[in-house]
Amino acid sequence: MRTLAVSLVALLLAVVAGAAFASGHVRTIATFDPAAGQLPEGVAVDKRGNVFASFAPLGQLVRFGPRSTEAEPFGSVPGIDAANGDLGLAGLAVDRRGDVYGAVISKVAGGIWRFDRTTGAAERLPGTEAIPFPNGLAFDRRGSLYVASSSEGKSPAGALLGGIWRVSRDGSVERILVDEALGGEGVLLPTGIGANGIAVRRRVLYVTNSEKGTLLAIRVRRDGSLRTPRVVASGAQLESADGLALDVRGNVYVAVIGQSTVVRVGRSGAITPIADASDGLDWASSLAFGQSKGKRRVLYAVNFAIGPQFGAPPGAGPGLLTIRVGIPGRPLP
After folding, report:
1. Looking at domain 6-324, which CATH architecture does it have?
2. Residue range 95-113, pLDDT digits in tens
3. Contact at 8 Å (CB) between 254 and 215?
4. Are 243 and 304 a contacting pair, CB within 8 Å?
C-alpha cells in the first residue's frame, strides 16, 4: 500500500480540508498505540452490544464489552507477516450465534477465520484459502457469508477484476461473480484494490470499489447467482471508499478511508457528508451499527490511521469512535 503516489494523498487531503461539520455527534471511545501495531481495520457489533475491532498487522481481535471503553484481547490469527507484505486481519462480521468472522489477507494465513463467541478460539474455514484478496464480509438472512475479494486477476483484455465469494451454511465455498466493475485500477497496489466493503439488504448486495470510487448494488437471483453490478453512486466524494453499513431507511453509510470522512448515500444516490477529520476521523476504514437497546442509532467506526504510510501528516491516531446519525441501523440477520 506504500506505493500510493504522494500527489493522490495531497488531493484527498485537500478534499478533506474543504469540508466542515458540526461537532458533538462524534465521540472517541478508545485510542490505540500505533507504535505497537494497534491499527484497527475492521469493526463489528453483536446483538449483546459487544464491539469487536481487528488490529490488522498483528492479526489480533479485541473486544469491548457493552458498557466498556477498555479493549480486551479476544482472539488472534497465527501466520500473519506484515513485514513481508501481509495486510492482515481486515473486515469483520458476526453471525446469528454471535461468532465473529474475519477476512485475512496473508500469503500463509489468508482466508476467512471464525472466532468462537465464548472463547475467541480461531479456525480458518476450509476452502476459503482460495479467495485471493478477502476484504469485506456480510451475512444474509439465510446465514450465507458474502466476501468481497478486492483482486481477482485480469480479464483477457487486461482489465483488473474483483469478485464476490459465498460461504454457505453447509460450508461450501464458491466464487459467484467476477467482474471488471469490482476490479481496481492499480493505484494502491499493482493488482488493484477494487471490491472492498460489503453489506446485504434482502436480496441486494451493496459493495464499494475503493480505487474506482463507486458504490455498487448487485441483485441476488433466486437461484443464488448474481446480476450485473449497478452503480448507485460515484465521484470524488467516494474515492477510496472502504467499509459500509446500512440503516432501516435504505441509506448506505460509507467510510471513505483516504479522505477521513464518513458519508451517507441515499436511495437516489445523493451523497451527504456525516463526519470528517475535524470530528476526529483518521483514515476511518470500517463501520457497524449498534445492535442493542439505546445503541441502534449509533454508528461505530475505527480509525485505521495509516496516513503517515502514504506520506500524509499524522492525524487523530488509531481509535474506536461513535457517530450518532439519528436513524436506526439495519438489524443483524
Report:
1. 6 Propeller (2.120)
2. 999 999 999 999 999 999 9
3. yes
4. no
